[in-house]
Design goal:
The chain is mainly alpha-helical and about 400 residues long. The protein has 17 helices and six strands. The protein has a two-stranded antiparallel ribbon. A two-stranded antiparallel ribbon has the order 3-4. A two-stranded antiparallel sheet has the order 5-6. The radius of gyration is 22 Å and the shape is globular.
């Protein structure tokens, strides 16, 4: 990825300014923020960057995604992958099996959104559980059945294209699951947990960061590590110093997709630069600058779900009449991205771009009657306009 260093250069020049008050005895020096070209930070010659837990969860999510289309898997096996317990043999990777981490406990688990709303968090996790169970009980058992109105099974895209496996209303449960995890784990944890001042500044984190008091046995402070964990949910399986994108099936993949759209080219640099500058600001103890970068990241990462929801709604229109297989796949991805909108974050607020109630209403609209078998182009346009109007892009920009 080719990156621009304009922001870095300008900030380095500005950060060295010395301000003097009217009194000769009062000198205030702004902290000098040393901004590296890439996401590389050291203390005493040792890297302070660490996000192994995020990499682990992304790898678990990747394997879960593949297993959702393996009809030899049982309901118990799939649910165990989602709610993995340390030592259980749920994955092909021994390191994942040995891990005490899992996806379910981090779904709808951010401090800002769900610490005081555990009922809603449980409802979201239970919905994912239900979809996983339905994949095994409804889809796998009808693997070789041709899907028709009201009947789950397989449906092939025109021209001998990909075979999709859908429920009675045309929804691919696997898409609903993985894209809900993109929102409910990766986006929510990044925007509403690790980038939140309620987490970054918790307890004595500011004092310890100011005094470079590191975590026992580690090279990093708690605040540095929290920022890294947010970074890890996007770049955890990518090259942190030169991201290539498409290295996982979640945020990393779809930020790359948005970046490749000419209407949004440059978004990847904006996000990466904000992560680098925010981390540098933590080292320099400039917490206002840190929080400014968090706001940039929130806005840009939130756009991914909005843009891709509209994109897939619009793509479905072109094949709705003549290629149900392709249309249902696009609609299933739109469904998942719409569900992920409840985990986005509007800058300067503690609110998503769309509430859970608004999201549920949109999903219900898609599922009315016979679901995707009945949905109309007018409905897809109405939903597209509703989503785009809340963001700073148009249907035409996102839908092409």
């Amino acid at each position: 990825m080719k990156r621009s260093n304009v922001i870095t250069s300008l900030f380095l020049s500005a950060s060295a300014l010395v301000f003097m008050s009217c009194s000769d005895d009062d000198i205030i020096i702004d902290p000098v923020v040393e901004v590296p070209e890439t996401y590389s930070f050291e203390r005493n010659g040792t890297s302070t960057v660490s996000y192994d837990g995020q990499t682990t969860r992304i790898l678990m999510a990747n394997e879960l995604k593949s297993s959702l289309l393996d009809n030899t898997k049982t309901e118990t096996e799939l649910l165990s992958m989602y709610a993995h317990q340390e030592g259980d043999s749920d994955f092909s990777d021994a390191d994942l099996n040995a891990s005490g981490k899992n996806l379910r406990s981090k779904t709808a688990a951010s401090k800002d959104y769900f610490s005081a709303n555990t009922t809603q968090a449980l409802a979201i996790r239970n919905q994912v559980d239900a979809w996983i169970s339905a994949q095994a009980n409804d889809i796998f058992t009808n693997w070789n059945t041709n899907a028709t109105v009201g009947v789950a099974g397989q449906i092939q895209e025109a021209g001998g294209g990909s075979i999709r496996y859908v429920n009675a209303k045309g929804l691919e449960y696997d898409q609903a699951i993985i894209l809900t995890l993109l929102g409910g784990v990766m986006t929510d944890q990044m925007l509403n947990n690790y980038l939140s001042s309620s987490v970054l500044d918790e307890a004595d984190n500011i004092e310890n960061n100011n005094n470079e008091i590191t975590v026992d046995g580690k090279s990093y402070t708690v605040m540095e590590h929290k920022w890294d964990e947010a970074f890890g949910y996007l770049y955890g399986t990518d090259n942190k110093d030169n991201p290539q994108f498409g290295q996982d099936q979640y945020l990393n993949k779809y930020l790359g997709r948005v970046e490749n759209d000419p209407d949004f080219t440059g978004i990847a640099d904006v996000v990466y630069d904000a992560f680098v500058l925010g981390r540098a600001a933590i080292v320099a103890e400039d917490y206002d600058l840190r929080d400014q970068q968090a706001e940039i990241i929130r806005e840009q990462i939130s756009k991914i779900s909005g843009i891709r929801a509209v994109y897939y709604l619009q793509q479905a229109k072109s094949s709705l009449a003549n290629d149900k297989g392709a249309a249902f796949h696009d609609l299933s991805e739109a469904y998942g991205f719409i569900n992920s909108l409840q985990f986005t974050r509007m800058p300067g607020s503690v609110s998503p771009y769309f509430s859970k109630a608004e999201v549920d209403a949109m999903l219900s609209t898609l599922m009315e009657g016979n679901g995707f078998w009945d949905v109309t182009e007018a409905t897809l346009d109405a939903l597209s306009n509703q989503i785009a109007a809340r963001f700073s892009f148009t249907v035409e920009q996102a839908g092409s």
